[in-house]
DNA sequence: CGTTTCACG
DNA sequence: GACGTACGTGAAACGT
């Protein structure tokens, strides 16, 4: 292969060996059809694909290690000696990764006796000498010594560049001094000895003081600290050897000249053949999309690529087992989707549904807002592949976006009233199960037409009950995971963004294909998931919590809550005027105008223009400017305080005052949120459009917004909230005796904690001490960490760790709970609440310690947060019926995790309060008897703020 | 479309 | 000893 002698301008050097290890540990196990593990190959291939697609390089090579033994072992026989053998699953992948590089038609280089890093150093030098710039694709710290002067590094996994600043952040010195620092601090991974007792921090300090290693070693006797001085004298030679080990060799006689690394076009057929042979379907299809004509040329004599499961599915839930459970993968069943345009056809489908006893259904509407939405069509599925679409509100195509001047004709459809009249008996028939995906929405739609759909199953809730936390619960995602099937996307039929035309304007055939498929997939999901819920002992959670909650939440959404529009408008104007004042003041303080809302510009003003102390912190090189940082800076300068004031008003104005006015429903004059029942992994609800679970309450300015949430005339808003529910559950679940007793006594729990942990009497306690104890109690619920607590309390991590230690000593049961919960999660991949709800945490086995620790804290929190969610859900299910039975008209409007908000006639408030308390406090019975009491506090007023 | 910030429990 | 920090959410604004 002779390369045209083009002078290199940009050379990419990919650290192949480094990447294989990283990909292997970062990705979940994955096997191709013949059982060969290929997860690292997939990671590697994805990386190359992206790299080749994005790079402007004209020369590129992947560099590998040829063998474990290199010239460095002759310098120091212990070099990399204690490094464990590669895991057996990785070994076969070394070869395949080289095949992958070949398939991409990228040059690859390796050389006996040298590490990949030495070859990279050599090519980098050659490239610079030829006038090219160099990008080293790697995150290996051993390569950082090469950075600078036209050489940069790029971490393909984190997609970030590593330049001199990043190197300085890591080593505390510039790239040219990295070798000296490494010589001192050594490297336990590579078994580079360094000097005992010297870490990165100390090494950087020393090198910054003395300039380089040799100067330091020669002037070692001057060093003040006796221990350090002696180490440097005793281990000077070891430091020199270490330096020789870490310094890369840039004069290797490379086997391939730089000129031969020129970027070559790949052969799409060959690449496709390789990818398909590994079973990398996603990547193969992307290649195919880019090269439509490509035909895979046989690469390996292998069976058809089979279940190398899509990466989305390769979590803790054993996707292969699920897939093998699949009754009929859609691809193999003939699809018969029918357009229903006559009453006779409609009756035929209704009869089929009644005969089956189960029908999947889906509604198409002209709005995502269930309160405003009008029906455009209905789809039904009665058996896999057998589905129909009944259009009722489609308009002529031309009528959609523009004025219907030509009177574009409405396609033939059965009148809506007729369809509804015929469907009503079916949808309300107790003997016919109706199955929807996110059925709450469809229940709402039909309720607005006077149809009470029942009984109903929801495949989104079934999937969530089984696998919350493992993956998303949208239908498209589930179809891909369970059936390996790509659904038609809404935006493909109805457009999106500017070209969105609304479903009513979609031509009937396209609408049929999309809508009928939704019902079809829903039916198939139901056949798969419903039996699993029983088999896997999750029926109680689904049947007693999730399923009965659907109609209750649907009613709350429909009820909505009244907001005082005029008051919100006044607030918006007030906030706006005050913002203008602040803005002027800020610009004066800053010495010129800038966009206060831009963290980037603000950071530059604070830290560069004004030169305030603090500085960079983000991984993206951006300055941090959050409230904590500005609060600290406020001691030094007036500007940060003003920015904090401005930000508060900006937030209140845009997110609340203005947005809520926009959200007032023109039909009802109220605000209707939408609750997501399968959004949060822990079992909590989530509120969207608008989010009514984060209405301000903590500050006086913020509470003005809450004051605009009001009752109808003659009514009050009544707020009932569980006191300390998660801490009570922690006491119960972890069996913390002292905490349980305190709750039984009705003690001030934070004061009690403070008294126990800090050994001070509750009487006359310093509020500061109680505040600390409160933070620790919260920390317990969150899976406490020294760093987190330190940040919360503005103390040092060491002090925080002391507090935690004292807490564990006083309440030893909590430690057991934490350890057992983590162990359970590692074994099963999920944790459970006392009511049996599961929360999956795929990250619990992550090889990255930070991500794993994150999952461990989540594992500790989820059973507590989840049990609290179970309890309030149980109360919500019982309340409407209990209130009705007592002859009370209270309507449940909102849920905010541990609080329920009702609208109550003024004449009934006295009688309503005890009912709310009784049902909510008794919500665990009869399945669970808590060892601590639950306490509910009730308040009432004409606004939500005052009802607290 | 991802990041940053901030509102809530 | 590295990782990069308290748990769970959603919305708005900025800037690429």
TrEMBL record:
PROSITE patterns: DNA_POLYMERASE_A. The keyword Disulfide bond does not apply. Residues 337-534 form the 3'-5' exonuclease domain. Pfam families: 5_3_exonuc (PF01367), 5_3_exonuc_N (PF02739), DNA_pol_A (PF00476), DNA_pol_A_exo1 (PF01612). Its EC number is 2.7.7.7. SUPFAM superfamilies: 5' to 3' exonuclease, C-terminal subdomain, DNA/RNA polymerases, PIN domain-like, Ribonuclease H-like. SMART domains: 35EXOc (SM00474), 53EXOc (SM00475), HhH2 (SM00279), POLAc (SM00482). Keywords: DNA damage, DNA repair, DNA replication, DNA-binding, DNA-directed DNA polymerase, Exonuclease, Hydrolase, Nuclease, Nucleotidyltransferase, Transferase. It catalyses: DNA(n) + a 2'-deoxyribonucleoside 5'-triphosphate = DNA(n+1) + diphosphate. It is an enzyme of class 2 (transferase). GO terms for molecular function: 3'-5' exonuclease activity; 5'-3' exonuclease activity; DNA binding; DNA-directed DNA polymerase activity. Residues 702-908 form the DNA-directed DNA polymerase family A palm domain. InterPro entries: 3'-5'_exonuclease_dom, 5-3_exonucl_a-hlix_arch_N, 5-3_exonuclease, 5-3_exonuclease_C_sf, DNA-dir_DNA_pol_A_CS, DNA-dir_DNA_pol_A_palm_dom, DNA/RNA_pol_sf, DNA_polI_H3TH. Residues 9-264 form the 5'-3' exonuclease domain. GO terms for biological process: DNA-templated DNA replication; double-strand break repair. Single-chain monomer with multiple functions. In addition to polymerase activity, this DNA polymerase exhibits 3'-5' and 5'-3' exonuclease activity. Belongs to the DNA polymerase type-A family. PANTHER family: DNA POLYMERASE I, DNA POLYMERASE NU. This is DNA polymerase I. It comes from Aliidongia dinghuensis. The gene is polA.
């Amino acid at each position: 292969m002779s390369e045209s002698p083009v002078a290199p301008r940009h050379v990419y050097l990919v650290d192949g060996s480094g990447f294989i290890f990283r990909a292997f540990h970062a990705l979940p196990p994955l096997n191709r059809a013949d059982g060969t593990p290929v997860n690292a190959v997939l990671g590697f291939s994805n990386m190359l694909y992206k790299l080749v697609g994005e790079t402007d390089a004209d020369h590129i090579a992947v560099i590998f290690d040829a063998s474990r033994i290199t010239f460095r072992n002759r310098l120091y026989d212990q070099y990399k000696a204690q490094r464990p053998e590669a895991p057996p699953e990785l070994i076969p992948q070394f070869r395949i990764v080289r095949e992958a590089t070949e398939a991409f038609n990228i040059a690859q280089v390796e050389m006996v006796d040298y590490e990949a890093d030495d070859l990279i150093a050599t090519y980098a030098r050659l490239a610079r000498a030829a006038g090219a710039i160099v990008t080293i694709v790697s995150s290996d710290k051993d390569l950082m010594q090469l950075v600078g002067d036209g050489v940069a590094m790029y971490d393909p996994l984190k997609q970030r560049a590593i330049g001199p600043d990043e190197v300085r952040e890591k080593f505390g010195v510039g790239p040219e001094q990295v070798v000296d620092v490494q010589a001192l601090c050594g490297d336990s991974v590579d078994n580079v000895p360094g000097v005992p007792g010297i870490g990165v921090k100390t090494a950087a300090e020393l090198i910054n003081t003395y300039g380089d290693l040799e100067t330091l070693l020669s002037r070692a006797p001057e060093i003040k600290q006796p221990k350090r001085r002696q180490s440097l004298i005793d281990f000077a030679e070891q430091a020199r050897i270490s330096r020789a080990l870490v310094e890369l060799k840039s004069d290797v006689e490379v086997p391939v000249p730089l000129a031969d690394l020129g970027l070559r076009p790949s052969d799409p057929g060959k690449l496709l053949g390789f990818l398909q042979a590994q079973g990398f379907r996603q990547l193969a299809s992307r290649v195919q999309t880019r090269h439509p004509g490509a035909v895979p040329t046989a690469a390996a004599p292998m069976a058809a690529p089979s279940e190398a499961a899509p990466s989305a599915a390769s979590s803790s839930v054993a996707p292969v087992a699920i897939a093998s459970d699949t009754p009929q993968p859609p691809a193999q069943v003939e699809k018969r989707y029918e357009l229903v345009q006559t009453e006779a056809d409609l009756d035929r489908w209704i009869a089929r549904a009644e005969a089956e006893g189960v029908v999947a259904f889906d509604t198409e509407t002209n709005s995502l807002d269930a309160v405003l939405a009008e029906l455009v069509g209905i789809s039904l599925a009665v058996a896999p592949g057998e589905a129909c679409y009944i259009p009722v509100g489609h308009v002529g195509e031309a009528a959609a976006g523009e004025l219907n001047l030509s009177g574009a004709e409405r396609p033939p459809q059965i009148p809506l009233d007729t369809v509804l009249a015929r469907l009503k008996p079916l949808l309300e028939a107790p003997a016919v199960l109706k199955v929807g995906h996110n059925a709450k929405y469809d229940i709402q739609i039909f309720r607005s037409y006077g149809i009470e759909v029942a009984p109903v199953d929801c495949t989104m809730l079934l999937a969530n009950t089984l696998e919350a936390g493992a993956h998303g619960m949208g239908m498209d995602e589930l179809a891909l995971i369970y059936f390996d099937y790509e659904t038609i996307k809404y935006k493909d039929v109805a457009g999106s963004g500017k070209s969105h035309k609304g479903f009513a304007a979609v031509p009937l055939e396209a609408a049929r294909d999309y809508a009928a498929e939704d019902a079809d997939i829903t039916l198939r999901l139901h056949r798969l998931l419903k039996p699993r819920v029983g088999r896997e002992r999750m029926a109680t959670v689904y049947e007693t919590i999730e399923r009965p909650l659907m109609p209750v939440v649907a009613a709350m959404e429909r009820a909505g809550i009244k907001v005082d529009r005029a008051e919100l408008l006044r607030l918006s104007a007030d906030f706006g005027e005050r913002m203008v004042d602040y803005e002027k003041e800020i610009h004066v303080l800053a010495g010129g105008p800038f966009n206060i809302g831009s963290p980037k510009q603000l950071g530059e003003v604070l830290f560069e223009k004004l030169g305030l102390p603090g500085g960079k912190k983000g991984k993206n090189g951006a300055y941090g400017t959050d409230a904590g940082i500005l609060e600290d800076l406020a001691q030094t300068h007036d500007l940060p305080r003003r920015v904090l004031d401005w930000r508060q008003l900006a937030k209140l104005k845009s997110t609340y005052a203005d947005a809520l006015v926009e959200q007032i429903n023109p039909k009802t004059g109220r605000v209707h949120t939408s609750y997501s029942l399968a959004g949060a992994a822990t079992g909590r609800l989530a509120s969207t459009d608008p989010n009514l679970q984060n209405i301000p309450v903590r500050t006086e300015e913020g509470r003005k917004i809450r004051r605009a949430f009001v009752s109808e005339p003659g009514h009050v808003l009544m707020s009932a909230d569980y006191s300390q529910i998660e801490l009570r559950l922690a006491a119960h679940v972890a069996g913390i005796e002292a905490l349980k007793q305190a709750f039984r006594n009705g003690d001030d729990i934070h004061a009690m904690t403070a008294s126990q942990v800090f050994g001070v009497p509750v009487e006359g306690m310093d509020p500061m001490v109680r505040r600390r104890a409160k933070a620790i109690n919260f920390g317990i619920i969150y899976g406490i960490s020294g760093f987190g607590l330190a940040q919360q309390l503005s103390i040092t991590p060491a002090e925080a760790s002391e507090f935690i230690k004292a807490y564990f000593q006083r309440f030893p049961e909590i430690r057991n709970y934490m350890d057992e919960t983590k162990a359970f999660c590692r074994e099963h991949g999920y944790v459970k609440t006392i009511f049996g709800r599961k929360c999956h945490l795929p990250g619990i086995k992550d090889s990255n310690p930070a991500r794993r620790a994150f999952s461990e804290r989540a594992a500790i929190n989820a059973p507590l947060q989840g049990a609290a969610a179970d309890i309030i859900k149980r109360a919500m299910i019982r309340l409407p019926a209990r209130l009705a039975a007592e002859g009370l008209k209270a309507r449940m409007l909102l849920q905010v995790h541990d609080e329920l908000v009702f609208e109550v006639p003024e004449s009934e408030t006295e009688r309503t309060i005890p009912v709310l308390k009784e049902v909510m406090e008794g919500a665990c019975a009869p399945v669970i008897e808590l060892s601590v009491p639950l306490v509910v506090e009730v308040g009432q007023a004409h606004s939500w703020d005052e009802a607290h």
